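User: Here's a protein and a ligand (S-adenosylmethionine). What would the complex look like?
Assistant: Let me lay out the input and then the predicted complex.
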Amino acid sequence: MTDYNSIKEKARQMWSTFAAFETVTGLAAPELVKFSGLQKGDRVLDVGCGTGVVAITAAQQGAKAFGSDLTPELIDRAKENSKISGFDINFIVSDVEELPYDDESFDFVLSQFGHMFAPRPNVAVREMMRVLKTGGVIAFSTWPPELLTGRLFALTAKYGPPLPEDLPSPVEWGDVEEIKKRIGDLAKHISFHRAQYGNPAMSPAHMRILLETHIGPIAAVIKYLEDSPNKQSLFRSEIDVLLGEYFENNTVIQSYLMTRGIKR
Ligand SMILES: C[S@@+](CC[C@H](N)C(=O)[O-])C[C@H]1O[C@@H](n2cnc3c(N)ncnc32)[C@H](O)[C@@H]1O
């Protein structure tokens, strides 16, 4: 039987070094907030909030924002960020598969590259929809399998340790047909939009070093290959070639998908 507690413990460790990427995911946050259509005074929950970039952006638009995330180090940083930015946002450590909020307590439930990492998509969706008011909006950003981050995930699967067979890939959340299957019973008027942001980097190898340092799933494969230096350098060079495809003007362009639906 799949041990979800240990999967989540590993996820917590993996994501603990992510904070440095808030400067780039912070560029995507206004896009999701705009796409969601939230208005001043709305109660908004940001799940898998990391360091709080979406919640803080929603608060800037006048929303009453809340944030939750599995990783305590990121929630600590989110609290610091809300203090610095002057917003009173309640950030808590919590699993999107078990949200500590009442039924129908939010007008908007948002997730930017967050809920896609829950190991049981149906449980995550059920929870996000439970805490959302009927007629409220669910909106999220995810990485499609055919674009840069999706292809990076494919490389981690190729070089990394075998994963439990019943564990879905996070990038299935970037496939519009799969999304419709996952949320279609609970949400209506589902719409999609593609957007992109740029990661500043002097070269593909600079970007790869940032990924190795701060993105847990990549760092974990580098560590796994420590005793196989040939494979480790192959993994690194495949990443560099891939990043090279998206590199222009000292920027790595990252495209993604946004989804929006209304709770039935
Ligand atoms: C790529 S980061 C995105 C963080 C943030 N939303 C942003 O855009 O900067 C993925 C986030 O998902 C969180 N996460 C992973 N599994 C989770 C789960 N089961 N429940 C809640 N958060 C989870 C991680 O802790 C991490 O903060």
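Summary: The beta strands are 43-47, 64-69, 90-93, 106-112, 132-142, 187-200, 247-248, 251-263.
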